[in-house]
Amino acid sequence: MQLGLFAVLVILSWTDLAGGSKVAKGKRQRRISTEVSQGCAKGCELCSEFNGCLKCSPKLFILLERNDIRQIGICLPSCPPGYYDARNPDMNKCIKCKIENCDACFSQNFCTKCKEGLYLHKGRCYPDCPSGYSAANGTMECSSPAHCEMSEWSSWGPCSKKKKLCGFRKGTEERARRVLNAPTGDRSGCPPAREVRRCTVQKSLCPEGPKRRKDEQGKRENGNGNHNRKEAKEARSGSRRRKGQQQQQQQQRGTVLPLTLAGPD
Questions:
Q1: At 227, is the secondary structure helix, strand, or coil?
Q2: Best CA proximity match to 167, nearest among 219, 208, 213, 226
Q3: Potential cystine with 180: which of 125, 144, 149, 242 (Cβ 3.0-4.6 Å)?
Q4: 3-state secondary structure 62-88
């Protein structure tokens, strides 16, 4: 009897402890959730106590920095050396260059500026220029023996696809530079004067322009012209058939000769 009462008391005590832990856990979760988006740094729209910023303002870039086993998000107006900016309708991000010893890149696998003391050649960084190449005009960019003098890169152009600026989400953008001086006169050995990279934009519908309306009107006019020509052709063929039938009827009737009566001698 006493053992039974003791077992009942143990079960009731365990139930109370379990219920209390659930309540405490619920309170802790509510406390953490209320801390989200409170006390965020400037430019941050959504943040967490443990992971820093989770979403930045539209014009800023989010950079994830590793701290032991955690990633801390911070918002920056531009990406730091060793990262390139990736614009996205949802959120702009700073993505780390995968090229070793790279200070600036426009994609993960193509460097545009190496760390100090290294030479840039075809998107990679080297301690010395490869055989047959040398630094152009005192710069740290390897070029062919032509020693071409290049202008600065232009800014990136608008995101486009098949020469259109609307009606798509993923396209390409490009920038260019000019050959200022090619001593041998042959520009084929100069560094590239055009670069292209992928881009993502908010998809928008293309408005119906006057050219499209003009094309549709031309198609209708061509259709009417073809119909009129067909009717004229059928009328000509019908006229020829009627004329042939009339000639055939005349041939079937034959020519009627008048009779001549002979008088008395």
A1: helix
A2: 208
A3: 149
A4: EEEEEECCEEEEEEECCCCCCEEEECC
Q: How far is CA 149 from CA 22, 185, 195, in A?
A: 72, 12, 17
Return the sign of the alpha-carbon dihedral for residues 111, 114, 119, 125: negative
CA dist., res. 222 & res. 216, Å (int): 10
Q: Which residues contact 194 (CB under 8 A, 6 or more apart)?
A: 174, 175, 176, 177
Domains of the chain listed by start with CATH number = 147-207 (2.20.100)
The conformational region for residue 161 under phi > 0 = left, psi -120 to 50 = alpha, else beta, is: beta
The tokens of 186 are what?
A: 């042959």
Q: What is the mean pLDDT of each run of 10 residues along the chain (265 residues)?
A: 53 54 45 52 87 89 85 89 85 88 86 90 89 75 74 91 87 91 70 88 76 60 64 72 70 52 47
Nearest to 90 by CA among 203, 206, 207: 203
DSSP H or E stretch at residue 29: helix 2-35
For residues 211 and 38, what is the distance between their CA atoms, to the nearest angstrom?
53
CA 17 to chain CA centroid, nearest Å: 57
Q: Which two tokens stand for residue 181?
A: 């001086």
Q: Read off φ and ψ for residue 186, nearest 5 degrees.
A: -100, 110
